[in-house]
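protein under study:
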Amino acid sequence: MEVLWTCYGRAVGDLLTLASPQKAVEVSHRNVIANCIQYRTFEQVIHDELGIDTQVVLGLLPFSHSYALVVIIHACVARGDSVIVLPGFDLNTYLAATERFRIQLHYVVRKSNNEIDNGGGCVVALFTDADMT
């Protein structure tokens, strides 16, 4: 197996025990290709139903987790999506980028989602292409 990258993190069961040591996971080229095909196959049904060919996607740094590296960096780009990369999560920058670049798909982690929910009266809505014109 040829290693593409090594990700460090905790197993899902270890999330409650933050004192546990991080574990290294080696990700191979074959893993990434298989995950991209799985992701594309899963999303294609929804894209076909909604008539989506490509879309604008938001990516928040750091891309240190395998999911972000596979889905945002590889699968979305392979599909032809535009990926807008922000250096981290800041609510005002996040909302400004969404409006400026007409971002249609947001991959957010629990921490970002909590800040959005507690954004001081901020309303988060899902937009269709018709809403973005």
Summary: The longest helix spans residues 29-50. The CA atoms of residues 2 and 128 lie 41 Å apart. Strands lie at 3-9, 23-28, 56-60, 82-86, 105-106. The radius of gyration is 17 Å.
